[in-house]
Amino acid sequence: MDTEKKPICVIVLGMAGSGKSSVIQKINSHLAAELDKSSNAYFINLDPACLEVAYSANIDIRDTVKYKEVMKQFTLGPNGGIITSLNLFATRFDQIMKIIDKRKSEYKYVILDTPGQIEVFTWSASGTIITETLASEYPTVVVYVLDVVRNANPVTFMSNMLYACSILYKTKLPLLLLVNKIDIMDHKFVLDWMHNFEAFQASLEEDSSYSANLARSMSLVLDTFYQELKVVGFSAVTGEGIADFFSNIDKCVEDYEMNYRPEYLKIKMAAEEAKKQKQQSQ
């Protein structure tokens, strides 16, 4: 596979309020301002419940699946409505792949914005289908957006790191940690907590709660995860860190080609073989 002729798929995940859509909007405006149009991006919104997006989406799930109608028809709550809407969209994701394939020479990136209810995408069948379908055809990277202000609390920080680690193992794809809102708060403490065990322990010194004790224990467990994790400080307001973001995306693509692509080729071949056997049995 020649990665230069195929777009890089970037799946943007993060907790509600972390600034995923704002990050994508800043990426969009940055690329639009570039004189070199070879770095164009194709944007896909996968959040059926959002009222509006801050960027111009090329494909928007809301155009094909009406979230409130799904809730009403199937008597679902908000999260159930989002999951079902994604499931309905995923059944036709092969059509999205055809669109991407048709226009792959025009774009360097395909950027996907996901629901704020992060577990709805990460742990759902539709999220797995979309992720595996993309990764079996194109270099794919997962970007986990972290709100630096909320994560100044060490217990909250550890919760996010555990979630990021679970996403790495669930998707089996390169993961980039994007520490957002550094225009409000410096993210150096995040790097310090990752690479200095004593510094993280010191931040929990006055907290004797069960969650704090668990965070202390987990900081040792995640040591290997931290060593391999790529981290970028970013501001969706000022654009600070955007060059570092694209540089690390390229590094993640190299990682994908070397360590992750062979696994996804196996998944693709197994799916094609199953489809072939089904056709023969009919």
UniProtKB/TrEMBL annotation:
EC number, as in UniProt: 3.6.5.-
Main subcellular localisation: cytoplasm
Protein location: Cytoplasm; Nucleus
GO molecular function, one term: GTP binding
Family matches, as SUPFAM superfamilies: P-loop containing nucleoside triphosphate hydrolases (SSF52540)
Lineage: superkingdom: Eukaryota
Record's keyword terms, sorted: Coiled coil, Cytoplasm, GTP-binding, Hydrolase, Nucleotide-binding, Nucleus
InterPro entries from the UniProt entry: Gpn (IPR004130), Gpn1/Npa3/XAB1 (IPR030230), P-loop_NTPase (IPR027417)
Pfam families: ATP_bind_1
GO cellular component, one term: cytoplasm
Gene3D superfamilies tied to this protein: P-loop containing nucleotide triphosphate hydrolases (3.40.50.300)
Family statement drawn from the similarity comment of this UniProt entry: Belongs to the GPN-loop GTPase family.
Function: Small GTPase required for proper nuclear import of RNA polymerase II (RNAPII). May act at an RNAP assembly step prior to nuclear import.
Subunit structure: Binds to RNA polymerase II.
Protein name as it appears in the record: GPN-loop GTPase
